[in-house]
Write a structure and sequence with these properties.
By secondary structure, this protein is of the alpha/beta class. It has a single domain, classed as Rossmann fold. 44% of the residues lie in helices and 19% in strands. It is built from ten helices and nine strands. Strands 1, 2, 3, 4, 5, 6, 7, 8 and 9 form a nine-stranded mixed β-sheet that branches.
Length: 262
Amino acid sequence: MPRFDYDDISMFYKVAGEGSPVLLIHGLGGDHRGWEFQEKDLAARFHIIMPDLRGHGQTTVDELGMMIPPDLIADDLYALLKHLGHEKVHVVGISLGGMIAQKFVLKYPERVDKLVLVDTTPKITEDLIDVVYSWREAQVEGGNEAYFWTSLRSGYSDEWIESNPDMVQYLKEKSADTNDEGVLAAGLGFSTIDFTNQLSEIKAETLVIHGDEDRIMNLELGKALNKGIRDSKLKILRGCGHSPDVQMTEEFNRILIEFLSA
């Protein structure tokens, strides 16, 4: 897999497919593999770019620091796209990746064609802080096993968990690779973001996708994005939690492809 080295970072990324470029931004604690259930379908129509963000996956930095500012991650992505020769791309971000996507389009509007914000928020709320704190509390008290199950039940319904034991086991195995230091640094970096008063500045054609059973970032936050970004579209996924990429893969992929292809 290729790497992009600049300044203090060696960024790991994966590319696939041909066509219009699409930047896929994963969530907190994830990496490029977060898009594994979208890769085949999207790569059949687009040139997809899947980086591991600073503090995540196989990307390394000289010194991580106590927190990772949103501006720094946006600058990383700008540098990567410039390195790859892409003047303008579609941007898709999920959860924390959706916050990064907002920061990116606000800072580099000329680089964004279409924008997709998935189960994300324009601001950090007290409810969201409480959810994330409960994960850390579980980890302190019960270790990584407790952390996994607490965070899983925040993101997925009990019914889905019970009905998909093989997928749950796979997610558990994959979570073992999480960079705890990077998660904490990124979480701290984004702990005070509030783009609410800047949403009207976003001119890119935008689609907001949100599960109505998301217990991490509730549907009202998706509606706030839709209300704040002029002419944006809102797609509500009924019966879906925080991860439509996993829970409703086929429908999620279809929605993405239709919007990006139009």
